[in-house]
TrEMBL record:
Keywords: Cell membrane, Membrane, Transmembrane, Transmembrane helix. This is Probable membrane transporter protein. It is a multi-pass membrane protein. GO terms for cellular component: plasma membrane. The chain crosses the membrane at residues 77-99, 106-123, 143-173, 180-199, 205-227, 234-255. The keyword Cell membrane applies. Pfam families: TauE. The keyword Membrane applies. Belongs to the 4-toluene sulfonate uptake permease (TSUP) (TC 2.A.102) family. InterPro entries: TM_pro_TauE-like, TSUP/Inactive_protease-like. It is found in: Cell membrane; Membrane.
Length: 259
């Protein structure tokens, strides 16, 4: 036993952390991997939800630094959306501490399904745009980022996907810049939520640290994929897989387990 976990579980946690960092940076929804793994390793859902913020934070920071090193980070836009999204995350994390998780989980499941049904037909076209004709950041978009921040602060699942959709479909960013902006914004967004959960003693630092080690490499690999020539094709496939897995996981955990 090492750090309270056997070697197989440690390898599993490292692999889950890598997948989390990679998916969150290249597409979205890396939490569909880490949350079930943490519950499998013995964490209750509330602790898993809180602990998950650590690999998400480290992976986002790793990806953002890689984008910045490659001169692919639109810092001005990232700063503009970080403020409302971070404020929303603080509210969402507070809600996660006081609202019954299973009831809110039903709302989140319905939200993910609605977003998938409403926007899925537009995702591929948005991702395949080589360049957007115009970058627009309007008050309505900032309000949407605030709502996405609440979602991210509460449960993470689906929030990063919504950010990507807002950045591409409404703000008008092409895929590489949208992923770069999202990675940068996720750093303060996740940090404030993590502070709230840490203050309540909900984070398993040992398991979170192990997941974060894998998330560093995953975030860097995800950033490189986003900037590659094949990014548009691969990221769309990853989004399809991630959204589908997200819906299945949420439905199983919050719907079928209630029957």
């Amino acid at each position: 036993m090492l750090l309270g976990y056997d070697p197989i579980n440690l390898v599993l946690a490292l692999a889950a952390g890598f997948a989390c960092g990679f998916l969150n940076t290249a597409a979205s929804s890396g939490s569909v991997v880490t949350l079930p793994i943490m519950i499998f390793l013995g964490l209750d859902p509330a602790t898993a939800n809180a602990t998950n913020r650590l690999p998400v934070l480290i992976g986002a920071a790793s990806g953002a630094l890689d984008f910045a090193a490659r001169k692919a980070m639109p810092w001005k836009i990232a700063f503009h959306i970080a403020a409302p999204t971070t404020l929303g995350s603080l509210i969402g994390a507070g809600l996660a501490e006081i609202v019954p998780r299973r009831d809110m989980g039903m709302v989140v499941t319905a939200g993910v399904l609605f977003a998938a049904l409403l926007l899925f037909k537009n995702i591929k076209n948005a991702i395949e745009q080589a360049q957007a004709a115009e970058v627009r950041l309007r008050p309505r978009d900032l309000a949407l980022f605030f709502l996405a921040g609440i979602w991210l602060g509460f449960i993470v699942l689906g929030g990063a996907t919504c950010m990507l959709l807002i950045l591409t479909l409404m703000v008008g960013l092409d895929l590489p810049r949208a992923n770069a902006v999202r990675a940068a914004a996720l750093v303060p967004v996740t940090l404030v939520a993590m502070v709230v959960f840490a203050a309540h003693g909900d984070i398993n630092w040992v398991l979170g640290g192990i997941l974060s080690l894998g998330s560093i490499a995953g975030g860097m690999m995800g950033a490189r994929l986003s900037l590659s020539a094949n990014a548009k094709r691969y990221v769309f496939v990853l989004l399809v897989v991630a959204i589908s897995a997200e819906l299945l996981q949420l439905a199983w955990h919050y719907v079928f387990n209630r029957l």
